[in-house]
Amino acid sequence: MDIIYLHEVRARTLIGWYDWERVAPQVVELDLEIGIPSARACASDDLVDTIDYDAVVKHIRKVLEERHFLLLEALAEHIAQLIMQDFGAPWAKVSVTKLGILHEVGRVGVTIERGHRA
């Protein structure tokens, strides 16, 4: 399977279990691996034969601005489902990271994998 990857994508969303986390949107960092439905783009050199990663990032940012999540797990699941349903990816691996949210901890996050990897 061919995979598109996007690392260190920054997006803003309301996220957190604790009330103090939900006062204002936080920046989360996303690492995405997206299975491409076919290898046609390798031969055609045409964007229509692959997943437009610019469109993926814009869509995720728009959705996250409008949604509130309590848990990183729920946020990661939502992004994985969005990638597979809205962009036709057969497989997605999503890592979501909160930056500097805990004292003396630089990053806190979760990684999930959904779909079928060929």
From TrEMBL:
InterPro entries hit by this protein: Dihydroneopterin_aldolase, FolB_dom, GTP-CH-I_C/QueF
Cross-referenced Pfam families: FolB (PF02152)
Domain Dihydroneopterin aldolase/epimerase: 4-114
Annotated GO MF terms: dihydroneopterin aldolase activity; isomerase activity
Keywords from the UniProt entry: Folate biosynthesis, Isomerase, Lyase
Biological process terms in GO annotation: folic acid biosynthetic process
Metabolic or biological pathway, per its Swiss-Prot or TrEMBL entry: Cofactor biosynthesis; tetrahydrofolate biosynthesis; 2-amino-4-hydroxy-6-hydroxymethyl-7,8-dihydropteridine diphosphate from 7,8-dihydroneopterin triphosphate: step 3/4
Superkingdom, taxonomy of origin: Bacteria
Annotated EC: 4.1.2.25, 5.1.99.8
Catalytic reactions of this protein: 7,8-dihydroneopterin = 6-hydroxymethyl-7,8-dihydropterin + glycolaldehyde; 7,8-dihydroneopterin = 7,8-dihydromonapterin
Cytoplasm is among the record's keywords: no
SMART domains associated with the record: FolB
Matches recorded under Gene3D superfamilies: 3.30.1130.10
Keyword Membrane among UniProt keywords: no
GO CC annotations on file: cytoplasm
Protein family according to the UniProt entry: Belongs to the DHNA family.
Protein name per its UniProtKB record: Dihydroneopterin aldolase
